[in-house]
Amino acid sequence: MIRFRHMAGLDRRSLLRGALQTGLVTLGTPLARTALAQAPPLKSNPFTLGVASGDPSPDGFVIWTRLAPEPLQPRGGMIALPREVSWEVATDPAMTTIVQSGIAIARIELAHSVHVEIEGLAPARDYFYRFRLPEAESPIGRARTFPAAGADVAQMRFASAGCQEWDRGFYTAWRAIAQDHLDFVFHYGDYIYENAYAAESKGVALPRTMPKQFATCYTLPEYRQRYALYKTDPDLQAAHAACPFLPSFDDHEVMDNWAGDRDKRDTPPEAFLFRRAAAFQAWYEHMPVRRAQLPRGPDILAFRRLAFGRLADIAVLDTRQYRSKQPCGDGIKACPEADEPSRTMMGAQQERWFAEGLRGSRATWQVLAQQVMFAPLDWRSFPWLPSSDVPLRSLDKWDGASAARDRVMQMLREAGITNTVVLTGDLHKGVALELKQDWRDPASPCVGVEFLATSISSDGDGFARYDNEPTLFANNPHLKFFSNQRGYIRHVVTPARWQADYRVVDRISVADGTVSTAKSFVTLAGKPGLADA
Fold this sequence. Notes:
seven-stranded mixed β-sheet, alpha+beta, 27% strand, disordered N terminus, Purple Acid Phosphatase, chain A, domain 2, 18% helix
C-alpha cells in the first residue's frame, strides 16, 4: 500500500481521532449507541450526491459518499444524529462476489460524509462498491487498485481535468471522461467556485443559474451548499462512479488567487484563516481522500506521492497553501520582484519533501501533478494587455516566483530525472509546452514537457485559435499548442511513450455538446520533447 512520506504530527491519538471523525471506528459508548438507535428512517433518497473513490494504493483505495436527502437545504436535509452506513466491495459490477464489507458512521460534524479506507485487495484490478442504509442503496461505483510497488506496467490511462464553474456551462466533458474507462482522474482543482449567484456574464445569460439566495462563500454551511450543488450534476457523478480520483485544490475552493495566509483583498490573516478553515473542511467532506488529508483548522496536508508500479511516480503538489503572495499586485505585467530568490510556490518543507522523493524514485516517468502553469510564458500581443518591450508574465503562476521554478529544475537535474511530465490547469486554455534547461535560450535542450488542461466549463463556450497566435508562438518557442476550447486531457502512458490527447467540447452552453480530439502529442522516454502523435 502507499506510504505517505510526510506524516509529521500524526501520532496515534491524532490518527484515532481522525478515524473517529471519518467514520472508520464505530462509536461504542452507551450514549453513542443511543444516538444511533434514535435516528429515524429517511423518507427520501440520501445518496443524491452519488459515490466516489480516490487515492488508490496497490491494495486499496478510499470510497466516499455523503448522506443528503435534500442536498441544497441546511445539513443536507439530515437531522443532528449520526447514522450507520453499510459498505460493500465486490469483484464484479453486479456485486455478487463481496470481498469486503463493514459499517461506517456518518456524523453531522462532517456533514454526514463517509470516508472508508479499503486495504487488503489485489493490485492492478477493478473493484466495485456501494453503500447501504436499511431504507436506501447507493449507486454502484468502479474503483481500481494501483499496480504493486516495483511492478512492470504495460500501460497507464488517466485524465487531467478541473475548473468546472457550474453556472458557466454543462459538464459534457465529465460525461466523456466517464466513458473513457480510465485508471484514474487527476483533478487539479477549482472543483467549486465561491462566487455569488449571477444571471448573466458580460451581458450574456448563463447556461445554468444557481439559486438566487446563493451568496459568495465565506462560511462552512455556504461552502457545503456549493459542493452539494456541483455534486448533483449527473455527468460529474458518472465520472466519479467510473474511476478513482486524485483530488487536489487550487484557488476557487477558497477564493480567487489566494496565496498562503492572505487573500487578494489583503484581509488580515487572522480573519482570512477562518474562511480557509471552513473551505478546507468542506473540501475534505466532499472528496474521496484519506484521513491524512483531514484538515486541522486552516491547515491541510494536500501534497502526497503515489507510485504506479515502476511506470510512474506521481507527486501531487500544493501550490497555494505555502506560496509567497503574488508580486507587483498580481496580474499580467513586467515585474522584477518576481525574480527575488526568496520567493516560493511550495514552501521550504514541501520543497525538501519533493527533492527527497526525486532522489528515491526509480520510475520511468516523474509526474508533477499540480495546479498552475509551470513553464514561463510571455503574454505580449494579447489585445487586452498593454504594449511592452519586455516580457509580460502572469504573476499567479510559477512566473511569479521564478526562483522557485529554478530550484525545482535543479532538483530534477541533481536526481538525474530524464522523463519529467508536468500536469497543470487553472488557465482555462489547452496548452502544451516543452521545458527547457535554459529558458532564455531557444536552442537549449528540452528536459521535460508540460500538459496544461483547459477548463471543464469555466469561461463558457470557447474557440480554437486566437488572432494573435503567430506572435504568441514567436515570443515563446517552447510553446507548441494553445487553444481556448473547453475539455480535458486524456493520457495514455507506456514505458516507451506518453501520449496526451487534447479532448475538446464544441459547445458547453447546451447539454448535448460533441467531444472530439483537437490535438495529440507524444513524448518519448529518454527523448524529451513534443511531437505530433
